[in-house]
Amino acid sequence: MTNERLLKRTIVKEVIHSRHLQEDRTLRIYLPPGYNEVLSYPVVYCQDGEEFFNFGRIATWANQLILEEGYEPFIIVGVEVNTKVRTEEYAPFGSRFDAYLSCFAEEIIPFIEEKYPVRRDASERVLAGDSLGGSVSVHLALQYPELFTRVISLSGAFYEKSQSMISIHSDLSWLDVYMIVGLQEDSYATDTGVYNFVELNRTTRDLFEERGATVSYSEKDGRHIWGFWQKELPDALRYFLKAE
């Protein structure tokens, strides 16, 4: 990962005003090597956009996949979040949850699609998130299946409310979820309580599979931190993106 060409990257910042959230929202957009507006690209949308770039090193991983492993170039859109209201936006019991889903699907997606040459088919969009970012990505897909069918969940925070919202769906055969959780996440303290993320993810995997979803599921040694997720990101991206 020390190769200098992997560290050269184009990241553009955009700010959009959300009428759903009644505030501005910052987006970080990674443009792949050889970016050309005449072409069209698959796109990965990340919750916790700043952390995916800073701690997940997703732009460097993307360069490696494209430049060294022959993957088709893709665009990444990181949606930033104010950590003070993150739970309110990402958790289904949060006061800003509905507004955040609407902002994402009805404001951010059209903005990106108008300004960047991203493909508009659901099979060419991937949602990615860690912890509550993983669960809110699933909720986006459940609410907007015409937009999103592919989700990367890194140690998803699938609390009871999320599980009950998944369980009301009888057919999830259109959904494809990449799930990973760390075995040392069995008693993780969050701002809403202490949770066994391993059990939460096992139960949620079963809910998905019982409803016909495609699930790639794994458990590995790891804690609920970016040090674990960063190493798992390349495989998660490889799962959904195509080598040329």
From TrEMBL:
Which superkingdom, per the lineage?
Bacteria
* Pfam families per UniProt: Esterase
PANTHER family on file:
ENTEROCHELIN ESTERASE-RELATED, IRON(III) ENTEROBACTIN ESTERASE
Question: Protein name, please?
Answer: Esterase family protein
Q: Which organism is the protein's source? A: Paenibacillus campinasensis
